[in-house]
User: What shape does this take?
Amino acid sequence: MPKAYEQIADDLRRSIREGERKPGERLPSETRLAERYRRSVPTVRDALRLLREEGLIEKVHGRGNFVRRARTMARRTNLRHQWEKDRAREPVEKRAQTGATEHDTGLELDDLVFHASYREIAAGQDLAASLGVPEGAALVERTYRTRCATETAPFSLVTSYLVRDMVAENPDLLDETKEPWPGGSQNQLHTVGIEVDRIEERVTARPPTPEEAEELELPRGTSVLVLRKTSYDIRGRVVGLSDIVLPGDRTELLFTTPLERW
Assistant: This one.
């Protein structure tokens, strides 16, 4: 026999999923719900907590509980890398028309808010080993956040690394004010004579850190996907490394592998 708070949660969940309660709609107060279900306010609170943990509702301080609006989904496919390479040598006017986020979400450029920040750091043990450079080597750490203009949470948390000496020939690659860069990282590398040959992506899942959960506005209990992207050039060198944290409630990873015909 379900507990009382589970029965309340079941009824509210049904009303949300069947569309009786619309995204953004405010739920009745805890007192009103307690009267409706003839249960105590603490029992109602337990039911609402369950729905918040499932990501169906969200609590706004001082205003109450609201049906959670669906976030824009992002479908990240491994075919995006060839798409980016095909564009890397196109004229800037064509490269500026669309980018990877638009490719993943179906949104237009004007729908997005973008932020980038750069800083120079010394390579620690992990980054040095991954990039094939000595510990202490100068790296350009680049942090990116892109969100839908109608939402407050970014699609992902991106931290990208370049070896400074490898890209310093083009000072624009050290300047965050040049972002957003038409054509993305493959075009950036192309400007210093680097052609990307292959990209390796390793994906794991884990609970978010408190900071990640807050920035991505994750419902309680939602995991994140952690993607490490390593780019190799035609000489076999590691020419770029990115650590990407993706929200598990609105990210789809699609892997397509073309096979040669017999």
